[in-house]
Protein backbone atom coordinates (compact mmCIF):
# COMPACT_ATOMS: atom_id res chain seq x y z
CA UNK A 1 0.00 0.00 0.00
CA UNK A 2 1.55 3.32 -0.95
CA UNK A 3 1.13 6.53 0.98
CA UNK A 4 -1.56 7.86 -1.34
CA UNK A 5 -3.70 4.72 -0.94
CA UNK A 6 -3.11 4.79 2.77
CA UNK A 7 -4.31 8.38 2.98
CA UNK A 8 -7.55 7.53 1.20
CA UNK A 9 -8.21 4.75 3.72
CA UNK A 10 -7.90 7.17 6.61
CA UNK A 11 -4.43 5.88 7.53
CA UNK A 12 -2.09 8.80 8.07
CA UNK A 13 1.01 9.06 5.87
CA UNK A 14 4.19 8.14 7.74
CA UNK A 15 7.00 10.68 7.40
CA UNK A 16 9.45 7.89 8.22
CA UNK A 17 8.33 5.48 5.48
CA UNK A 18 10.87 5.00 2.67
CA UNK A 19 9.38 5.94 -0.70
CA UNK A 20 7.08 3.24 -2.03
CA UNK A 21 7.44 1.08 1.10
CA UNK A 22 4.78 -1.40 2.19
CA UNK A 23 3.82 0.33 5.43
CA UNK A 24 3.17 -3.06 7.07
CA UNK A 25 6.90 -3.72 6.78
CA UNK A 26 8.06 -0.49 8.41
CA UNK A 27 10.79 -1.55 10.80
CA UNK A 28 12.83 -0.28 13.70
CA UNK A 29 15.61 0.52 11.21
CA UNK A 30 13.29 2.82 9.22
CA UNK A 31 12.40 4.70 12.40
CA UNK A 32 16.02 4.95 13.60
CA UNK A 33 17.07 6.26 10.16
CA UNK A 34 14.36 8.92 10.44
CA UNK A 35 15.47 9.90 13.94
CA UNK A 36 19.10 10.09 12.82
CA UNK A 37 18.21 12.32 9.87
CA UNK A 38 16.59 14.74 12.29
CA UNK A 39 19.43 14.81 14.84
CA UNK A 40 17.74 12.57 17.37
CA UNK A 41 20.29 9.74 17.63
CA UNK A 42 23.37 10.02 19.88
CA UNK A 43 26.00 7.47 18.83
CA UNK A 44 28.27 6.23 21.61
CA UNK A 45 31.18 4.84 19.60
CA UNK A 46 33.33 3.76 22.54
CA UNK A 47 33.44 0.56 24.62
CA UNK A 48 30.70 0.75 27.26
CA UNK A 49 30.10 -1.73 30.11
CA UNK A 50 26.81 -3.65 30.00
CA UNK A 51 26.61 -3.43 33.78
CA UNK A 52 25.14 -0.02 34.73
CA UNK A 53 27.29 2.16 32.43
CA UNK A 54 25.15 1.65 29.33
CA UNK A 55 21.93 2.32 31.26
CA UNK A 56 23.44 5.39 32.94
CA UNK A 57 24.27 6.95 29.56
CA UNK A 58 20.90 6.06 28.06
CA UNK A 59 19.13 7.49 31.11
CA UNK A 60 20.95 10.81 30.70
CA UNK A 61 19.86 10.98 27.04
CA UNK A 62 16.28 9.77 27.65
CA UNK A 63 13.71 12.23 26.32
CA UNK A 64 16.23 14.11 24.19
CA UNK A 65 17.96 11.58 21.91
CA UNK A 66 17.93 7.85 21.28
CA UNK A 67 21.20 6.29 22.49
CA UNK A 68 22.99 3.99 20.03
CA UNK A 69 25.91 2.00 21.45
CA UNK A 70 28.31 0.49 18.91
CA UNK A 71 30.52 -1.41 21.41
CA UNK A 72 28.37 -2.64 24.32
CA UNK A 73 30.27 -4.96 26.63
CA UNK A 74 32.65 -6.15 23.92
CA UNK A 75 29.80 -7.30 21.63
CA UNK A 76 29.76 -6.50 17.93
CA UNK A 77 25.96 -6.21 18.19
CA UNK A 78 24.86 -2.61 18.92
CA UNK A 79 22.29 -1.65 21.57
CA UNK A 80 19.67 1.09 21.15
CA UNK A 81 17.51 2.72 23.81
CA UNK A 82 15.09 5.64 24.09
CA UNK A 83 13.76 5.84 20.52
CA UNK A 84 10.22 6.56 21.71
CA UNK A 85 10.91 8.69 24.77
CA UNK A 86 8.76 11.72 23.86
CA UNK A 87 5.04 11.95 23.38
CA UNK A 88 5.55 14.04 20.23
CA UNK A 89 7.82 11.35 18.71
CA UNK A 90 5.18 8.69 19.32
CA UNK A 91 2.55 10.86 17.60
CA UNK A 92 5.01 11.39 14.74
CA UNK A 93 5.57 7.62 14.42
CA UNK A 94 1.78 7.20 14.21
CA UNK A 95 1.54 9.96 11.59
CA UNK A 96 -0.81 12.19 13.62
CA UNK A 97 -0.74 15.35 15.73
CA UNK A 98 -0.38 14.84 19.48
CA UNK A 99 -4.01 15.90 19.94
CA UNK A 100 -5.14 12.96 17.76
CA UNK A 101 -2.86 10.36 19.32
CA UNK A 102 -5.39 8.66 21.60
CA UNK A 103 -8.15 8.70 18.98
CA UNK A 104 -5.84 7.10 16.40
CA UNK A 105 -4.74 4.40 18.82
CA UNK A 106 -8.35 3.64 19.81
CA UNK A 107 -9.40 3.45 16.17
CA UNK A 108 -6.65 0.91 15.45
CA UNK A 109 -7.52 -1.15 18.54
CA UNK A 110 -11.15 -1.23 17.41
CA UNK A 111 -10.34 -2.33 13.84
CA UNK A 112 -7.44 -4.82 13.93
CA UNK A 113 -5.90 -6.09 10.69
CA UNK A 114 -5.05 -9.77 10.33
CA UNK A 115 -1.33 -10.46 10.04
CA UNK A 116 0.20 -11.86 6.83
CA UNK A 117 2.23 -15.07 7.20
CA UNK A 118 5.41 -14.97 5.12
CA UNK A 119 8.02 -17.64 4.42
CA UNK A 120 11.47 -17.64 5.92
CA UNK A 121 12.95 -16.09 2.76
CA UNK A 122 10.80 -12.99 3.41
CA UNK A 123 11.44 -12.91 7.16
CA UNK A 124 14.60 -10.90 7.93
CA UNK A 125 14.31 -11.96 11.60
CA UNK A 126 15.37 -15.47 10.53
CA UNK A 127 18.36 -14.56 8.37
CA UNK A 128 20.62 -16.06 11.04
CA UNK A 129 19.47 -19.08 13.10
CA UNK A 130 21.00 -20.61 16.25
CA UNK A 131 19.40 -23.82 17.53
CA UNK A 132 22.20 -25.61 19.35
CA UNK A 133 24.64 -24.80 22.14
CA UNK A 134 22.85 -21.53 22.86
CA UNK A 135 24.57 -19.08 25.19
CA UNK A 136 22.46 -15.93 25.52
CA UNK A 137 25.24 -13.99 27.24
CA UNK A 138 27.60 -14.67 24.33
CA UNK A 139 24.99 -14.07 21.62
CA UNK A 140 23.32 -10.89 22.90
CA UNK A 141 24.45 -7.68 24.68
CA UNK A 142 22.00 -7.84 27.59
CA UNK A 143 22.44 -4.96 30.06
CA UNK A 144 22.16 -4.87 33.83
CA UNK A 145 20.27 -1.64 34.49
CA UNK A 146 19.74 -0.47 38.07
CA UNK A 147 21.94 -0.58 41.17
CA UNK A 148 20.23 -3.50 42.96
CA UNK A 149 19.04 -5.47 39.90
CA UNK A 150 19.80 -9.17 40.15
CA UNK A 151 21.79 -9.27 36.89
CA UNK A 152 21.00 -8.75 33.20
CA UNK A 153 17.39 -8.28 32.09
CA UNK A 154 15.58 -8.21 28.77
CA UNK A 155 13.27 -5.20 29.19
CA UNK A 156 12.03 -4.57 25.64
CA UNK A 157 11.03 -8.06 24.52
CA UNK A 158 7.57 -8.64 23.05
CA UNK A 159 6.52 -11.96 24.56
CA UNK A 160 4.24 -13.78 22.11
CA UNK A 161 2.32 -16.95 22.92
CA UNK A 162 -0.80 -18.84 21.82
CA UNK A 163 -3.81 -19.52 24.00
CA UNK A 164 -3.63 -23.34 24.39
CA UNK A 165 -7.44 -23.47 24.34
CA UNK A 166 -8.20 -21.20 21.34
CA UNK A 167 -4.90 -20.85 19.46
CA UNK A 168 -5.20 -17.04 19.43
CA UNK A 169 -1.95 -15.19 20.08
CA UNK A 170 -1.19 -12.65 22.80
CA UNK A 171 1.59 -10.07 22.98
CA UNK A 172 2.91 -8.44 26.14
CA UNK A 173 6.15 -6.99 27.44
CA UNK A 174 7.34 -8.81 30.56
CA UNK A 175 10.55 -8.33 32.45
CA UNK A 176 12.86 -11.27 31.82
CA UNK A 177 15.89 -12.09 33.93
CA UNK A 178 18.62 -13.96 32.05
CA UNK A 179 20.28 -16.16 34.67
CA UNK A 180 21.57 -19.06 32.63
CA UNK A 181 23.08 -19.71 29.21
CA UNK A 182 19.66 -20.74 27.89
CA UNK A 183 17.44 -20.10 30.91
CA UNK A 184 15.43 -17.07 31.93
CA UNK A 185 12.89 -16.19 34.64
CA UNK A 186 9.83 -14.15 33.64
CA UNK A 187 7.35 -12.06 35.61
CA UNK A 188 3.77 -12.98 34.69
CA UNK A 189 1.18 -10.52 36.02
CA UNK A 190 -2.33 -12.00 36.23
CA UNK A 191 -3.32 -11.15 32.66
CA UNK A 192 -3.47 -13.01 29.36
CA UNK A 193 -0.03 -14.67 29.16
CA UNK A 194 -0.51 -15.78 32.76
CA UNK A 195 -3.84 -17.38 31.86
CA UNK A 196 -2.24 -19.22 28.89
CA UNK A 197 0.62 -20.47 31.06
CA UNK A 198 -1.72 -21.68 33.80
CA UNK A 199 -3.91 -23.48 31.25
CA UNK A 200 -0.86 -25.22 29.77
CA UNK A 201 0.51 -26.05 33.20
CA UNK A 202 -2.78 -27.62 34.35
CA UNK A 203 -2.48 -29.98 31.37
CA UNK A 204 1.14 -30.69 32.31
CA UNK A 205 2.44 -28.90 29.20
CA UNK A 206 5.07 -26.30 28.54
CA UNK A 207 3.86 -23.08 26.87
CA UNK A 208 5.68 -22.23 23.64
CA UNK A 209 6.74 -18.59 23.49
CA UNK A 210 8.77 -16.23 21.35
CA UNK A 211 10.41 -13.00 22.48
CA UNK A 212 10.79 -10.40 19.72
CA UNK A 213 13.38 -7.71 20.40
CA UNK A 214 13.88 -4.66 18.20
CA UNK A 215 10.54 -3.83 16.61
CA UNK A 216 9.22 -0.54 15.26
CA UNK A 217 7.43 1.99 17.53
CA UNK A 218 3.95 1.09 16.25
CA UNK A 219 4.37 -2.60 17.08
CA UNK A 220 5.83 -1.65 20.47
CA UNK A 221 2.76 0.50 21.22
CA UNK A 222 0.29 -2.11 19.99
CA UNK A 223 1.80 -4.65 22.38
CA UNK A 224 0.58 -2.48 25.26
CA UNK A 225 -3.07 -2.23 24.14
CA UNK A 226 -5.46 -3.18 26.91
CA UNK A 227 -7.79 -5.62 25.15
CA UNK A 228 -9.97 -8.57 26.09
CA UNK A 229 -8.29 -11.98 26.01
CA UNK A 230 -7.96 -13.58 22.54
CA UNK A 231 -7.31 -10.28 20.74
CA UNK A 232 -3.92 -10.64 19.02
CA UNK A 233 -2.06 -7.37 19.62
CA UNK A 234 -0.04 -7.92 16.40
CA UNK A 235 -3.30 -7.30 14.52
CA UNK A 236 -3.55 -3.90 16.23
CA UNK A 237 0.03 -3.29 15.09
CA UNK A 238 -1.18 -4.03 11.56
CA UNK A 239 -3.99 -1.49 11.95
CA UNK A 240 -1.53 1.14 13.20
CA UNK A 241 0.68 0.43 10.17
CA UNK A 242 -2.30 0.68 7.82
CA UNK A 243 -1.33 -2.69 6.29
CA UNK A 244 -1.12 -6.27 7.54
CA UNK A 245 1.95 -6.99 9.62
CA UNK A 246 4.18 -9.63 7.99
CA UNK A 247 4.77 -12.46 10.47
CA UNK A 248 6.96 -15.56 10.32
CA UNK A 249 6.55 -18.90 12.06
CA UNK A 250 9.22 -19.64 14.63
CA UNK A 251 11.80 -22.29 13.67
CA UNK A 252 11.24 -24.42 16.81
CA UNK A 253 7.54 -23.82 17.58
CA UNK A 254 4.27 -22.60 16.08
CA UNK A 255 4.32 -19.01 17.35
CA UNK A 256 4.16 -16.23 14.73
CA UNK A 257 6.54 -13.30 15.19
CA UNK A 258 6.96 -9.92 13.45
CA UNK A 259 9.05 -10.76 10.37
CA UNK A 260 10.99 -7.50 10.63
CA UNK A 261 12.02 -7.90 14.27
CA UNK A 262 15.76 -7.60 14.83
CA UNK A 263 16.05 -10.59 17.17
CA UNK A 264 13.75 -13.45 18.24
CA UNK A 265 14.35 -15.75 21.21
CA UNK A 266 12.25 -18.93 20.98
CA UNK A 267 11.51 -21.10 23.96
CA UNK A 268 9.01 -22.73 26.30
CA UNK A 269 7.73 -21.77 29.73
CA UNK A 270 8.28 -24.96 31.72
CA UNK A 271 5.36 -26.39 33.74
CA UNK A 272 5.72 -26.57 37.52
CA UNK A 273 9.18 -24.98 37.52
CA UNK A 274 9.92 -21.77 39.45
CA UNK A 275 13.25 -20.08 40.02
CA UNK A 276 14.20 -16.91 41.92
CA UNK A 277 13.83 -13.62 40.04
CA UNK A 278 14.63 -10.10 41.22
CA UNK A 279 15.15 -7.69 42.77
CA UNK A 280 14.51 -5.44 39.78
CA UNK A 281 14.01 -1.66 39.55
CA UNK A 282 10.47 -1.18 38.17
CA UNK A 283 8.32 1.63 36.69
CA UNK A 284 7.36 3.27 40.02
CA UNK A 285 11.12 3.91 40.51
CA UNK A 286 11.33 1.29 43.30
CA UNK A 287 12.52 -2.31 43.36
CA UNK A 288 10.42 -5.43 43.12
CA UNK A 289 11.53 -8.10 45.60
CA UNK A 290 13.11 -11.44 44.78
CA UNK A 291 10.39 -14.05 44.27
CA UNK A 292 9.97 -17.46 42.64
CA UNK A 293 8.93 -17.03 38.98
CA UNK A 294 8.11 -19.06 35.89
CA UNK A 295 11.08 -20.21 33.81
CA UNK A 296 11.72 -20.09 30.05
CA UNK A 297 13.99 -22.69 28.49
CA UNK A 298 15.41 -21.28 25.26
CA UNK A 299 15.18 -23.44 22.12
CA UNK A 300 16.48 -21.05 19.45
CA UNK A 301 17.76 -17.54 18.79
CA UNK A 302 17.19 -16.07 15.34
CA UNK A 303 18.10 -12.61 14.10
CA UNK A 304 18.62 -10.28 11.18
CA UNK A 305 22.05 -9.83 9.74
CA UNK A 306 23.74 -7.11 11.83
CA UNK A 307 20.90 -6.93 14.35
CA UNK A 308 20.42 -4.18 16.93
CA UNK A 309 19.35 -5.05 20.50
CA UNK A 310 16.74 -2.77 22.10
CA UNK A 311 16.75 -2.15 25.84
CA UNK A 312 14.25 0.01 27.76
CA UNK A 313 15.67 1.86 30.76
CA UNK A 314 13.23 1.05 33.57
CA UNK A 315 11.13 3.94 34.90
CA UNK A 316 12.45 6.38 32.27
CA UNK A 317 10.30 8.13 29.66
CA UNK A 318 10.33 5.36 27.05
CA UNK A 319 9.07 2.91 29.67
CA UNK A 320 6.48 5.30 31.12
CA UNK A 321 5.04 6.52 27.80
CA UNK A 322 4.90 3.07 26.28
CA UNK A 323 2.65 1.91 29.10
CA UNK A 324 0.89 5.25 29.51
CA UNK A 325 -0.38 6.12 26.03
CA UNK A 326 -2.26 2.87 25.28
CA UNK A 327 -3.73 3.06 28.81
CA UNK A 328 -4.87 6.63 28.24
CA UNK A 329 -6.61 5.55 25.03
CA UNK A 330 -8.35 2.71 26.86
CA UNK A 331 -9.33 4.88 29.84
CA UNK A 332 -10.70 7.63 27.58
CA UNK A 333 -12.88 5.16 25.69
CA UNK A 334 -14.01 3.56 28.98
CA UNK A 335 -15.00 6.90 30.55
CA UNK A 336 -16.71 8.13 27.39
CA UNK A 337 -19.00 5.09 27.30
CA UNK A 338 -20.69 6.32 30.49
CA UNK A 339 -19.81 10.03 30.23
CA UNK A 340 -19.66 11.26 26.62
CA UNK A 341 -18.78 14.76 27.93
CA UNK A 342 -15.30 13.52 28.93
CA UNK A 343 -13.03 15.27 26.40
CA UNK A 344 -9.49 14.15 27.20
CA UNK A 345 -7.43 12.27 29.79
CA UNK A 346 -3.81 12.23 30.84
CA UNK A 347 -1.78 9.87 33.02
CA UNK A 348 0.74 12.26 34.54
CA UNK A 349 4.48 11.59 34.36
CA UNK A 350 4.81 12.32 38.10
CA UNK A 351 2.25 9.57 38.70
CA UNK A 352 4.53 7.24 36.67
CA UNK A 353 2.01 7.27 33.78
CA UNK A 354 -0.06 4.74 35.72
CA UNK A 355 -1.38 6.03 39.06
CA UNK A 356 -2.62 9.62 38.57
CA UNK A 357 -5.32 10.34 36.02
CA UNK A 358 -6.35 13.82 34.98
CA UNK A 359 -9.69 14.13 33.23
CA UNK A 360 -11.01 17.03 31.17
CA UNK A 361 -14.79 17.12 31.38
CA UNK A 362 -17.59 19.36 30.08
CA UNK A 363 -19.75 19.33 33.21
CA UNK A 364 -23.41 20.23 32.69
CA UNK A 365 -24.95 19.18 36.03
CA UNK A 366 -23.63 19.39 39.58
CA UNK A 367 -22.27 16.12 40.96
CA UNK A 368 -21.30 14.65 37.58
CA UNK A 369 -17.57 15.08 38.20
CA UNK A 370 -17.82 12.68 41.16
CA UNK A 371 -19.49 10.08 38.93
CA UNK A 372 -16.56 10.43 36.53
CA UNK A 373 -14.13 9.90 39.43
CA UNK A 374 -15.90 6.69 40.48
CA UNK A 375 -15.98 5.45 36.90
CA UNK A 376 -12.20 5.99 36.60
CA UNK A 377 -11.47 4.01 39.77
CA UNK A 378 -13.39 1.09 38.29
CA UNK A 379 -11.51 1.24 35.00
CA UNK A 380 -8.14 -0.03 36.20
CA UNK A 381 -6.81 -1.06 39.62
CA UNK A 382 -3.65 1.02 39.11
CA UNK A 383 -5.62 4.31 39.21
CA UNK A 384 -4.96 5.84 42.62
CA UNK A 385 -5.75 9.54 42.24
CA UNK A 386 -8.17 11.23 39.83
CA UNK A 387 -8.50 14.96 39.21
CA UNK A 388 -11.44 16.17 37.12
CA UNK A 389 -11.13 19.63 35.53
CA UNK A 390 -13.17 21.82 33.19
CA UNK A 391 -12.64 22.15 29.45
CA UNK A 392 -10.64 25.40 29.83
CA UNK A 393 -7.88 23.48 31.67
CA UNK A 394 -5.12 21.70 29.72
CA UNK A 395 -4.87 18.17 31.13
CA UNK A 396 -1.38 17.73 29.70
CA UNK A 397 0.06 20.61 31.77
CA UNK A 398 0.77 19.91 35.48
CA UNK A 399 0.75 23.65 36.28
CA UNK A 400 -2.79 23.93 34.86
CA UNK A 401 -3.98 21.02 37.02
CA UNK A 402 -2.44 22.57 40.12
CA UNK A 403 -4.09 25.90 39.25
CA UNK A 404 -7.49 24.21 38.93
CA UNK A 405 -7.03 22.51 42.33
CA UNK A 406 -5.84 25.80 43.87
CA UNK A 407 -8.85 27.77 42.69
CA UNK A 408 -11.78 25.38 42.08
CA UNK A 409 -11.41 22.73 44.77
CA UNK A 410 -12.45 22.65 48.45
CA UNK A 411 -11.37 19.54 50.35
CA UNK A 412 -14.46 19.34 52.60
CA UNK A 413 -16.82 19.37 49.61
CA UNK A 414 -14.95 18.15 46.56
CA UNK A 415 -12.78 15.29 47.86
CA UNK A 416 -13.68 11.62 47.36
CA UNK A 417 -11.77 9.03 49.43
CA UNK A 418 -12.31 5.29 49.18
CA UNK A 419 -10.39 3.10 51.55
CA UNK A 420 -9.31 -0.51 51.25
CA UNK A 421 -9.60 -0.95 47.48
CA UNK A 422 -7.20 -2.91 45.28
CA UNK A 423 -4.31 -0.82 43.96
CA UNK A 424 -0.92 -1.41 42.42
CA UNK A 425 1.13 -4.01 44.31
CA UNK A 426 4.22 -2.16 43.00
CA UNK A 427 3.26 1.00 44.94
CA UNK A 428 5.44 0.71 48.08
CA UNK A 429 2.98 2.74 50.18
CA UNK A 430 0.53 -0.20 49.94
CA UNK A 431 2.95 -2.37 51.94
CA UNK A 432 3.05 -0.22 55.10
CA UNK A 433 1.94 -2.28 58.10
CA UNK A 434 2.21 -5.56 56.20
CA UNK A 435 4.64 -8.38 56.98
CA UNK A 436 7.45 -8.85 54.42
CA UNK A 437 5.98 -12.18 53.37
CA UNK A 438 2.37 -11.08 52.90
CA UNK A 439 0.69 -13.51 50.50
CA UNK A 440 -0.25 -12.21 47.05
CA UNK A 441 -3.97 -12.00 47.85
CA UNK A 442 -3.26 -9.47 50.62
CA UNK A 443 -0.90 -7.28 48.58
CA UNK A 444 -1.72 -4.00 46.85
CA UNK A 445 -4.59 -2.86 49.11
CA UNK A 446 -4.79 0.89 48.54
CA UNK A 447 -6.92 3.97 49.19
CA UNK A 448 -8.28 5.96 46.24
CA UNK A 449 -8.50 9.75 46.13
CA UNK A 450 -10.60 11.82 43.75
CA UNK A 451 -10.54 15.61 43.43
CA UNK A 452 -13.41 17.43 41.79
CA UNK A 453 -11.63 20.57 40.59
CA UNK A 454 -14.46 21.77 38.40
CA UNK A 455 -16.16 25.11 38.94
CA UNK A 456 -19.94 25.27 39.54
CA UNK A 457 -22.08 24.96 36.41
CA UNK A 458 -23.63 28.32 37.22
CA UNK A 459 -21.55 30.99 38.99
CA UNK A 460 -21.85 34.72 39.70
CA UNK A 461 -20.48 37.00 36.99
CA UNK A 462 -16.65 37.02 36.86
CA UNK A 463 -16.14 34.78 39.94
CA UNK A 464 -14.86 31.81 37.93
CA UNK A 465 -14.06 33.72 34.75
CA UNK A 466 -10.50 32.97 33.73
CA UNK A 467 -8.54 36.13 33.06
CA UNK A 468 -7.75 36.56 29.43
CA UNK A 469 -6.61 39.51 27.35
CA UNK A 470 -8.52 40.09 24.13
CA UNK A 471 -6.14 39.38 21.26
CA UNK A 472 -3.69 37.23 23.30
CA UNK A 473 -4.07 34.32 20.93
CA UNK A 474 -4.40 36.27 17.69
CA UNK A 475 -1.82 39.07 17.71
CA UNK A 476 0.70 38.59 14.88
CA UNK A 477 4.08 38.82 16.63
CA UNK A 478 6.03 38.17 13.43
CA UNK A 479 4.51 41.27 11.89
CA UNK A 480 4.90 43.40 15.00
CA UNK A 481 8.32 42.59 16.46
CA UNK A 482 11.21 44.34 14.67
CA UNK A 483 13.88 42.14 13.11
CA UNK A 484 16.58 43.90 15.14
CA UNK A 485 16.85 46.10 18.23
CA UNK A 486 18.01 49.27 16.50
CA UNK A 487 15.09 51.32 17.77
CA UNK A 488 15.69 50.08 21.30
CA UNK A 489 19.43 50.80 21.10
CA UNK A 490 18.65 54.29 19.80
CA UNK A 491 16.42 54.81 22.82
CA UNK A 492 19.18 53.67 25.22
CA UNK A 493 21.84 55.84 23.61
CA UNK A 494 19.72 58.96 23.73
CA UNK A 495 21.01 61.70 26.05
CA UNK A 496 18.49 61.41 28.85
CA UNK A 497 19.83 64.57 30.47
MN1 LIG B 1 -3.74 -9.40 25.44
UniProtKB/TrEMBL annotation:
Protein name listed in UniProt: Decarboxylase UbiD
* Transmembrane spans: none
Domain 3-octaprenyl-4-hydroxybenzoate carboxy-lyase-like C-terminal stretches: 322-453
3-octaprenyl-4-hydroxybenzoate carboxy-lyase-like N-terminal domain boundaries: 32-107
Q: What Gene Ontology cellular component terms go with this record?
A: cytosol
Describe the location of the 3-octaprenyl-4-hydroxybenzoate carboxy-lyase-like Rift-related domain by residue ranges: 117-315
Q: Could you state one GO biological process linked to this protein?
A: ubiquinone biosynthetic process
Q: What Pfam families does the annotation carry?
A: UbiD, UbiD_C, UbiD_N
Organism (species): Caballeronia concitans
Q: Coiled-coil region(s) at which residues?
A: none
NCBIfam families hit by this protein: UbiD family decarboxylase
MF terms in GO: 4-hydroxy-3-polyprenylbenzoate decarboxylase activity
**Do you know which Gene3D superfamilies this protein is assigned to?**
UbiD C-terminal domain-like
